[in-house]
Write a structure and sequence with these properties.
The protein is mainly α. It has one domain: Membrane associated eicosanoid/glutathione metabolism-like domain (Four Helix Bundle (Hemerythrin (Met), subunit A), Up-down Bundle), CATH 1.20.120. It is built from five helices and no strands.
Length: about 140
């Protein structure tokens, strides 16, 4: 894996790359369902329905966009504070691997597992943020 000086920064880089994967998959699903003319047009008309899997991929991407800024802020705060807590490395890895698992689990429509995987990623953000506090 890429070494950016810390596990947390490496996981931040990997998560940004994962965001590109989310975007690309959502775009490909959109083009497959709505067609290239719609994708290249002004989108003045309502979009054609995406179908279940395409809609899930679109929602998974939107969910990634909701969590990634919080994760990025937590990692950057922890890096600035520099306590060197093992909690930050663990949290960053939980976030990244939780988000990796989230995409296929959501695309397949696995309801309970999707929520559990999301919770793992959320807990990762909390751990990284907690690691920036004094004494942890």
């Amino acid at each position: 894996m890429l070494d950016l000086g810390s596990v947390e920064l490496t996981m931040l880089w990997a998560s940004a790359a994962l965001g590109l994967v989310h975007l690309l998959i959502a775009v490909l699903a959109s083009v497959a369902n709505r067609g290239m003319p719609w994708a290249m047009g002004p989108r003045d008309e309502p979009a054609v329905e995406m179908g279940k899997t395409g809609a899930r991929l679109e929602r998974a991407y939107k969910n990634f966009l909701e969590t990634f800024p919080l994760f990025a802020a937590a990692v950057l705060i922890e890096a600035a504070v520099g306590h060197g807590s093992g909690l930050a490395a663990l949290g960053a890895q939980l976030y990244f691997w939780g988000r990796v698992a989230y995409l296929p689990v959501y695309a397949l429509g696995v309801p309970v597992v999707r929520t559990l995987v999301w919770t793992v990623a959320f807990a990762g953000i909390v751990l990284v943020l907690a690691a920036s506090l004094p004494g942890l």
